Fold this protein.
Amino acid sequence: MTAPSRGTAVVTGAARGLGLAIATALHADGYAVLLTDVDAAEVRAAAGRLGCAAAELDVRDEAAVRAVAEQAAAGPGGLALWVNNAGILATGPSWSHDAATRRAIMEVNALGAMTGTLAALGHMRAAGRGHVINIISLAGLVAAPGETVYGASKHALIAFSIGTLAELRAEGVRGVHISCVCPDGTWTPMLQDRLHDTGAAASFTGILLRPEQVAARVARLARRPRPVLAIPRWRGWQVRLLDAFPATSIRAAGLTLAFGRAQQRRYARRIAAGRWP
């Protein structure tokens, strides 16, 4: 086990899935990691297995987010890294979601990450150093039919992240970074029960990633910050091209989603045969 030497890192939504994989990779890379999640029992169990600290956290609670930032700032090496990973997904046409569902998605995925970013920046700007990494999605770079409200929350977060980074640079702050990670569909609990959900087909149109693959790239990004990282990179270029020609992508939506549904069936067969993941 590597002794913590790179400062304290906070990871939200870290009880399972991608958040836990990120926390594990950062811990191995020398951070003292504070795992947070709305599921108190599970995040404490996960942190205990790693030998890390844990805190119950609902990212919609601004006072609680600020308290976690204070705790991390007082931790080994101060608050060096904050990873906003907590997120929720609802699928289906935008008109199929009620107001409570739309509000929850926006409050967790967008506003919760904004709150975490600003809480972290309060300490990082004062210290003159630090890094916020926001886990977005390729759905933050292009519209994703069937995941429209989710995609809207991710578009909001990437705009906020890049805009805030520009504001830091305009203020002359050079040692504080904000990065956006936009992975392809990732095999986490968010997708594992959606192999037969046609509304989630957009998440299966590319390469289905393992959480450990994304986590390794996040750990590397923590060492070499950049504003936006698409995983894999070629998918980032692909979806940006689609976004640049919306009329074309809309006309192709039926074919794209049909391909995604075929991929869902393919992965279901591979999993049933024990050949994936």
Summary: The first strand starts at residue 8 and ends at 11. The chain is about 50% helix and 15% strand.
